Fold each of these.
Amino acid sequence: MGHPCDSAQLAIPYSLIPDPCSCIIEEALIRAFEPASGPDGTCMKTGIIGLPQVGKTSLFKILTKAKLEEKGYSNPREEHIGVARVPDERLDKLSALYSPKKTTYAVVEYVDVAAIGQEALKETAFLTSLRNVDALIHVLRAFENDAIPHVGPIDPLRDIKSVEFDLMISDLTQIEKRLERLEKDLKKGRTSELEREQALLLRSKEALEKEQPLRELEMTADEKKLIKGFMFLSQKPILYVVNIGESTTLGDDLEAAVSQFKLDEVAARPNAGATAICGKVEAELAEMDDEEAAEFLGSYGLRESGLVRLIRKSYELLGLISFFTAGEDECRAWTIPLGSKAPQGAGAIHSDLEHHFIRAETIRWDALLDAGSEAAARSRGTLRLEGKEYVVQDGDVMHIRHSG
């Protein structure tokens, strides 16, 4: 397995994510139960990785508005953790309907780690930071700037292969150590569980030796559960983010970037994706109010910022959708996996709601807005009752009935 170079989780309107689902839960429920996902509502954790001088930390600062120059961020090897708010046009409209005391947006937690490489991957703290995230964003340099040094020519595809190689080597080392211990354990006494683990790790080892990341290896749900504790780096879903330079044709350049740098094939692989941003423009947008930002984007022929596409792609990659709770006290956005049933949607707020779920009164969020109120929607007959087996559909608004 030779090194390729030798040869060579916020600002996204949820209306832009493929029809996230929605829920309205009566005010009494919101008062009775505390959020299950933590006080900050974090629903997923995404690690931002990349080689030196690619704009990785700049992207993190734009996403989270973190001030890394402040005391406490002076160590370049230290991980940075921040939370990005996820604006949602639909939540804004529901808030306009209910005029709540509080509107709470969904958030994404991001972790910015030191520049990646084989030496960094030998450090325990660095490895721990990466293994504890749900997905990876790999920032790729595609901009020219003499003031920011870069080793060799700009080549995002080469950088992908280089970093992927390092991730796979880390996993391979971990697997080989575990296989040595398994062999000893099996000599002491064979069990079906140890044999299954050994067979899966041998299959994973074979894939890695063929330079196939584990995210591309087909596994059953039981197999994924069996090796979940290893938190293999090359198994994590990955989003490639091409950081291009500013231009007068930025809109077209962003659309063409993935193909221009020959990333279509890697982006089409299982559990992978790609998008493009212009870090310089995003940094300017981060300092503007909404009206200024819209005008600035329009000057480039853009309707949305690169960060909107980035977070949308992150959600698509992880198979996540959004739902709402709404009432006079609070309108709030939550995040659940695509395909969740109604009880699991309620359980995202608190486990007791899932346990005591009876049924859900359901309507599309836009139909609710069109009716003007739940009472009006009910009188129109557009509300329907759904049971425990109902799979929450994109755009649903649900009024939860429970026995708690």
Amino acid sequence: MATSIWFWVGFNAFVLLMLALDLGVFHRKAHRVSVGEAARWSAIWVGVSLLFNAGIWMFAGRQPALEFLTGYLVEKSLAVDNIFVIALIFSYFAVPEKYQHRVLFWGILGALVMRGAFIGAGAYALERWHWVIYVFGGILLLTGIKLAVRKDEGFDPEHNPVLKLVRRVMPVTADYDGQRFFSRENGRRMATPLLLALVMVEVTDLVFAVDSIPAIFAVTKDPFLVYTSNVMAILGLRSMYFLLAGVVHRFVYLKTGLAMVLVFVGAKMMLADVFHVPVLASLAVIATLIGGSIAASLLRARKDDDDEGPGSGGGPGVDAGGVERSGQTAAPAAEEGAPAGAASADRAATARPAPPAPAKSLAPPHRPTLRLRGY
């Protein structure tokens, strides 16, 4: 659809206003985000997105509105995989609960900038070189297949090259300094472990953007619809994290559903010049795959709960978050503000991990590796 520059200006002004209200008013004081608060904000963001979708229908017509809704659903679904990794990052660095929202706020703000650049580059490439559509389709097909066959995987930020670069460029304190990303020790400016967690969140989103951006281009090539559907889905990621991080491990079949969605949209792009799939059909297929995988997961979780009975544990080496522990047992809890070196990778990836026991180094010599089970 032909989009006036004022639509771009108005939408971005609205996003900046909502972000300013979020951090400057509603979350001005660091606090633990409860499930109830997360549920309310999730409902608000979904409602705002649907109102925006209704506005597109009113001013641009049915087809652009369906394209926005389909792109929004794709991005929202792929964000669930992102949530699980973010939970592991917070657990690894033992980020106190009341500071997690701040990390997600700035992480999402950075993600909006990066994804805006990605979308602009993708739209330009598709308009200039038609064969790029086959590259995007191939990326989605390979990613979907890889996601379907992926088994357990390790998570060890210590070997991440970006994190190594940050530590090489700037010294890092051993302790958290409230919700600050930088601190001073003996007059020397240093990064805090909260900055390391933020860097890992940004790197994670960058990786996921490689999948999600081409997936939305498979639905629509309109840059405004690609951008707005992506942004509206990302804005609700923080509240969705606090709402789902503690139970996302129970969606054991969601990975399969996401893989099938990626394969579907990848094949749709690859066959674009041969067979056109109507956007309404795409929306129905994607909604069926995601909804079916969630329903099957909930039925499986209910059956497992019935089989285990009351008081059943996760078994040795497995905690309630569905994460296997290898190398050592869980450390005892410590008070909030313990040294960041105590970021125990052997703890469960829940939405609110308890601060682990203190240690003296951010990189203990025998740090265990998290193994993801069923996702």
